[in-house]
Amino acid sequence: MDILDILISASFWAATIRIACPLVFATLGELICERAGVLNLGIEGIMTAGAMSGWLWVFNGGDLISAVFFAAFVGAILGLLHASFTVSLGLSQHVTGIGITLLASSLSYFIIKMLLPASTAPPKITPFQSLDIPVLSALPFLGEALFSHTALTYTAFLIVPVIMYVLYRTPWGLAVRIAGENPVALEAQGINVISVRTLAVMLGSALMAVGGASLTISAFDAFYFGMVNGRGWICIALVIFASWRPGKALLGALLFAGLDAFQVRMQQQVGAYIPYQFFLMLPYVLSIVAMIIVARRAEYPKALLKPYRRGERL
Amino acid sequence: MNWACECPVPLKNPQNHDQSLLMQLELRESTPWWLSLSAPIIAICLSLLLASLLIVWAGESVIEAFRTMAVGAFGSTFALTETLSRAIPLTLTGLAAAIAFRARFYNIGAEGQLYCGALAATLIGSGFLNLPSHLLIPLLFIAGAAAGGLALLLPWFLKTRLNVDEVVTTLLLNFIILLLVSFALEGPLRDPMSMGWPQAAPIIDAGVLPALVPRTRLHAGAFFALAAAVILWLLLRYSVFGFSIKSLGLNSHAAEHAGIPAKRTLLWVALLSGALAGCAGVSEVAGLKGYLTLDLSPGFGYTGIAVAMLANLHPLGVVLSAIFLAGVSVGADSMGRALGVPSYIADIMVASAVLSVLIGLMFTRYRIRH
């Protein structure tokens, strides 16, 4: 009965869409990197850097839309760093990614501490306001659930078909996919694998950073320490869950966001009987379960984790 | 550049359009010893360079900042014992990462395994068993090692049987274990004497590791960590098990082809790696803090990866790099208190050291082709 109450409330569905926004951006970003053959474990740090830089841009008087682009730029620079380590130099993608996460998040915290040394309560900005779509937002239930979100949230959902089009319908998308499956074949076509992979990692990292920025300039209005809080790692599990397909990635992100919104509401109802820690565990436990379910038929990009060096066999 | 793959592109000789973003590399046949030694040194220099840029930005004198840091880390008996006591858990988690990474089993879960060890030590050591010290302390370590090792069983099983990536599973388990510990500390394990703080009952006196230097926090766990490093080094260098790990790390297919049981070797690697991380938790609870809290580890599990990388996965090198990185964070803390430089600079130095040691190591394996 209680569960049903939650499911038929418009606020639950609105929260699901809102929580999914950063996950969609970051999962798509990771997906593009992995499709090109590069695992990007820097995701958690890149999201933190995006959250920090987007917020800082607005705090210093920039407008919200350019803040998104600034965060994307910072993400792309970090992606370039990751790519120069893993693509150009062919170093371990695991260790590099962890290093980038540590570097990007500690640098972000350092910068915030430097610029706002004495603040106890984090200063706030005016984030993206919810943009009611005319006519549609007036619909009962659906209006509140689907058509009353911020511009960045709408963008997260609109970008999925764009990425699908780029990945499956453009020559560059084809090149990215081949770079992740069979880089030697790509090289034989006269296309530079190194630059395809580098660009893919930069684009993917830019999307991750926008996902992080959506936390500070769309969902909340301040930057907190530890604010990304493992969302990046969840996105890595989501990419596997999605079998490296953008459409399924959207579905997975929505599923997880729904679960998250659901557990918060369940906590309020049965929190007295079940400790809240078990609700907080749910996303992580379900990530592992989802990976187990899809692992048997998971079709990894065949060149994932394999550095490409010209003239060297895979 | 022509991205169109469908249309017939004239095939070029890859050697001719060879305008790669970076130079060509070729595998070295052998590595001179001085080159392998220079990689960590170059890495440390690069991380010091990045740190000095940030110090300049913070408006402090670089020399003064590094002097404060060095004095804060090694300048007095107290500073030195603080650094060494912080190096104990870092050595153990560093060894945990080193042995696992050597076999290409990417255990990112040392943080969770550390808490498993700490939890086991708390369960047994806080009054459940009343034994003399020489029995209770070894028992605490055995229990902690078992708990840490068990925490890696699931990722091992998922990797070898179901082909689930161990990086993600070990990482996600960190969060799950930490939430379990949080639940235990607020519920069944909460110390009734703790005035409502989420902390467990203290380890009884017989289970507390003796202090090495009076009135400091340096405890006997230091000997344990050092012994673990030496034993692991001997094991990796002279045993069949060490040889199996090495060949698994170099080429798992070839190793399996040569008759090395990959799954079983990986099982022992996982158990040993988790056990080492679990012991780090035991030594923190029974040696340093005395009781379990949620902030027992400021990310020792993750820093352990950096420790292992900086040591090029060498067990004895792990001891040195743990002392160095412990000094960096203890020193950065005291610099943060004395000057206006945020202590996050320690993490930045750790991260930049990891990234630059990777580059340095590559040059020990490859040379630039002329």
Assembly state (oligomeric)? heterodimer
Fraction of residues in β-strands of chain A: under 5%
Going by CATH, the architecture of chain B would be: Orthogonal Bundle
Output the helix-strand order of chain A.
HHHHHEHEHHHHHHH
CATH topology of chain B: ABC transporter involved in vitamin B12 uptake, BtuC
Numbering strands along the chain, what is their spatial order in the largest sheet of chain A? 1-2
Biggest β-sheet strands, sense, barrel of chain A: 2 strands, antiparallel
Gyration radius of chain B, in Å = 23 Å
Q: Quick check: average pLDDT of chain B?
A: 88
Tell me the span between the first and last alpha carbons of chain B: 26 Å
What is the CATH domain class of chain B?
Mainly Alpha
List the helices and strands and how they pair.
The complex is a heterodimer of chains A (314) and B (370).
Chain A: H1 2-7, H2 10-35, H3 43-59, H4 64-88, H5 93-115, E1 130-132, H6 142-146, E2 148-150, H7 151-169, H8 171-181, H9 183-188, H10 193-219, H11 231-241, H12 246-270, H13 276-295
Antiparallel strand pairs in A: 1-2
Chain B: E1 25-27, H1 33-57, H2 62-74, H3 77-102, H4 110-125, H5 133-151, H6 153-162, H7 166-186, H8 221-238, H9 240-250, H10 252-257, H11 262-289, H12 300-310, H13 315-338, H14 345-365, E2 366-368
Commentary on this structure:
Chain A: Its main location: membrane. The complex is a heterodimer of chains A (314) and B (370). Chain A is mainly α and 314 residues long. Chain A has helices at residues 2-7, 10-35, 43-59, 64-88, 93-115, 142-146, 151-169, 171-181, 183-188, 193-219, 231-241, 246-270, 276-295, and strands at 130-132, 148-150. The longest helix of chain A has 27 residues, at 193-219. The mean pLDDT of chain A is 90. Chain B is 67% helix and 2% strand. Chain B has helices at residues 33-57, 62-74, 77-102, 110-125, 133-151, 153-162, 166-186, 221-238, 240-250, 252-257, 262-289, 300-310, 315-338, 345-365, and strands at residues 25-27, 366-368. The longest helix of chain B has 28 residues, at 262-289. Residues 1-22 of chain B have low confidence and may be disordered. Chain B has one domain: ABC transporter involved in vitamin B12 uptake, BtuC (Orthogonal Bundle), CATH 1.10.3470. In chain B, strands 1-2 form a two-stranded antiparallel sheet. The chains are: A mainly alpha (314), B mainly alpha (370).
